[in-house]
Amino acid sequence: MTTRIVSDPAYLQHIAGPMHPESPGRLRAIQGLLSSTPVQGVQHGVARPATRTELTRVHDDAHVAQVLALSGQHAQLDSDTAMSPGSADAALLAAGAAAELTLQVVSGELTNGFALVRPPGHHAERDRAMGFCLFNNVAVAAEAALAAGAQRVLVLDWDVHHGNGTQHTFAARRDVLFCSSHQYPFYPGTGAANEIGHGAGEGYTVNVPLPGGMNDADYGAVFHDVFLPRALAYRPDVVLVSAGFDAHRADPLGGMDVTERGFAAMASAMKSLAEEVCGGKLVLLLEGGYDLDGLSQSVHACVEVLAGRRESFPDGASARVREAIAETLRCAR
Ligand code: ZN
């Protein structure tokens, strides 16, 4: 069993603005903890840039060209998404790390891995940057897996925000099952329970919109009652996770009550699922997470899980999460 973490110094050169929560300090905190408390048996790798072909499976040419043309410049792409001179390179290396790590897992060269990238990706749409995201890293990774021969890819998004860009990329298709839990109503506004995909993809988008305050036990109920049964029935060839950590109880943007043990339990559930259906092929990709201690401790706990530690959810899910689960299951029929 081989676990690899991929990151790159170039990710620190993406600076979204002074006081912006999506800061280089996020990766510095993660790397600091992984250095001071190493996880045994984990390999470390560096990123390669995404190819134009990999990017244009997800984004239109004009969006890719716009981001690349702004290399070396400062630019404001939407109200909360900015580029600095190093951002285009960082975005290329973020999408490339996501794709390459996924290809290495799909091929069996690695068992699993974690791409510790910036900028994040799940809000980026086909034709535009959005919500701190320039390229949709997880969508690029899913397309890379399909191009390499995977028939079915699960993308599970546990970031506290809905992964609108990822959902829209795959909503009309059944070769990618998109499952998301997120605070709702909340940024970006999408992710209602009745958004279940359309056309050939109807039933292949699963949204669990949640009220604020959900804790580890509540997330456990979402995973056990919704995500795991659906994913087991789907039998993916590889499992990709949009791993944001802004549902952490200390996060300044999210309103949830999840701890690092809860995130480890989510990772452990996905690892068990992958072991059952696809030889353990699992890739985590960093999305949000803005409390530096909560983020770094949660990432560290997930890396321990990838390398072999197991963690389970506590009991005691609330009535409020049961209602949210029931609504998702009603919409699935
Ligand atoms: Zn987020």
Question: What would your notes on this structure say?
Answer:
This protein has 333 residues and is an alpha/beta fold. It is 40% helix and 15% strand. The chain has 10 helices and 10 strands. The chain has an 8-stranded parallel beta sheet, with helices on both faces. Strands 3-4 form a two-stranded antiparallel sheet. Helix 1 packs across helix 9, helix 7 (216-234) packs parallel to helix 8 and helix 7 runs parallel beside helix 10 (319-332). It starts with a strand and ends with a helix. Bound molecules: zinc ion. Zinc ion (ZN) binds at residues 159-161, 244, 246, 287-288.
In short:
Helices cover 40% and strands 15% of the residues. With 333 residues, it is of the alpha/beta class. The protein binds zinc ion.
Number of strands: 10
- Considering DSSP H and I runs of 4 or more, what fraction of the residues is helical? 25-40%
Measured on Cα atoms, how large is the radius of gyration? 18 Å
User: How do the helices and strands follow one another from N- to C-terminus?
Assistant: EHEHHEEHEHEHEEHEHEHH
What is the molecular shape? globular
Distinct small molecules bound, one entry per kind: zinc ion
Strand line-up across the major sheet: 2-1-5-10-9-6-7-8
Low-confidence stretches: none
Q: Profile the largest sheet.
A: 8 strands, parallel
Mean pLDDT: 98
Give the percentage of residues in beta strands: 5-15%
Number of helices: 10
Q: Output the structural class.
A: alpha/beta
Distance separating the two termini: 39 Å
